[in-house]
């Protein structure tokens, strides 16, 4: 039996070579219109439109039906979601798993809360592919993935906190101050799957230094680094170069944020995930 892997679109990944892979879209709601986070969405263009119009925005998670559609036809399924502290995607996937197994006796569906988003889910998918290729038993994959995530960290470099405040992820007062004084904020994913502030900086050089210092303090000494950016390829490349100069034996790659990560990272934002062990 084949193993199907499903992730929500916060992974920024819509195709994954070597996996039976499906992506389930979250949605951005702007001026009453719904924009599914699919591969064809021009996320930077949408973010520029949102900034220019100042219209009302929000987001929504995949429905139970969305998850079940992605499961259809598979016998063994592993789902990976954005942090359950940031979205209802995890709960929807759990409910879909129960319904799917009830409707398809003998199937197995496991759901993993990444407690994170974006490039950390990418690292999880890379590790999952390795385990599947090693023919690790399906029943062991979820536990191995949880152990792996315990040694992965995620950082955020954000030029705007507006959309995070709209979603209740940071206070509106903090977001307003950030916009007024032009600071960049560096945040980190917590063990509980929330975003915690690490510090604030003025200027790209100081922000990169804080990111590098935080990586070192949390145990990074070489290994995999995945960087996602929202319409900021120059900033992402500069950070990748700085990481390679400071740390040896790095495997650093860059991709673009898809819709939901672009919405929360906002224009200019960077999201960085990195390994501190490879359990």
UniProtKB/TrEMBL annotation:
The organism's place on the tree of life at top rank: Bacteria
UniProt cross-references to PROSITE patterns, sorted A to Z: DEGV
Upper classification of the organism: Bacteria, Bacillati, Bacillota, Clostridia, Lachnospirales
Classification via Gene3D superfamilies: 3.30.1180.10, degv family protein (2.20.28.50), Dihydroxyacetone kinase, domain 1 (3.40.50.10440)
Entry-linked SUPFAM superfamilies: DAK1/DegV-like
Pfam families in UniProt: DegV (PF02645)
Entry's Gene Ontology molecular function annotations: lipid binding
Keywords, in A-Z order: Lipid-binding
Protein name: DegV family EDD domain-containing protein
